[in-house]
Amino acid sequence: MGLSGNIPQENAMTTVEKTRPVTHGETPIALPPLPFADNALEPVISARTIGFHYGKHHKGYVDTLLKLVDGTSMADKPLETIILETSGQPEHQKIFNNAAQIWNHNFYWNSLSPVAQAPSGKLAAAIDRDFGSLDKCKEALIKASVDQFGTGWGWLVYDGGRLKVVSTGDAEVPFVHGQAPLLTVDVWEHAYYLDWQNKRPEHVKALVDGHLNWEFAARNFAAI
After folding, report:
1. Where are the alpha helices (DSSP H) in the chain?
2. Would you give per-residue pLDDT tens digits along the chain (224 residues)?
3. CB-CB contact of 124 with 134 (8 Å)
4. Which CATH class is domain 15-35+45-110?
5. What are phi and psi of 158, to 5 degrees?
6. Fold for domain 121-222?
7. CA 143 to CA 185: how far, in whole Å?
């Protein structure tokens, strides 16, 4: 199942329940299967990169978080709750970082498509309204991703009634700041360095132009 399923019912009045990204359900601490074959994104992302990125880095965040929360009240909580409860809490920074990186990577894999897609329907109309065209939206996402200093993420989000492009550093997650993510681009070096070395701009452009999962973005947009 894609990350847009399993929408929770808002029957609690806590801040966490109100802030949780309803488009992405309650995600367990686990390594989900990839939504495509490990060579499906070649040559933009090689099977070798997927092997390290998914099989080592992503899995490493899962293994580390499971150890960190073992025997605590967080052990049975979904990632979204853990992220919201530990955000901005220095004493829980390691828990936040690993939980957020699991969530971000889950979202990233679903943001990618083996075949080129284009947005349609209400999402396409919103893109035209807020960016002027799909090309301008892509340009903004490429720029935000490339310009992110150091490690981080580029995002297409819905915020304040409009679509926006933002970037976050390290493990930061847009929904912590009230923004609903629709798509993301990973610009940590492990996402591209084996294939592109220091050519982050070229990697990001190739990914945005040919491998974004606009159907996933549309499902997220429709669920807001």
Report:
1. 15-19, 47-52, 59-69, 79-86, 93-110, 121-131, 134-147, 193-196, 200-210, 214-222
2. 333 332 222 333 233 343 445 445 689 999 999 999 999 999 999 999 999 999 999 999 999 999 999 999 999 999 999 999 999 999 999 999 999 999 999 999 999 999 999 999 999 999 999 999 999 999 999 999 999 999 999 999 999 999 999 999 999 999 999 999 999 999 999 999 999 999 999 999 999 999 999 999 999 999 99
3. yes
4. mainly alpha
5. -110, 125
6. minor pseudopilin epsh fold (3.55.40)
7. 11
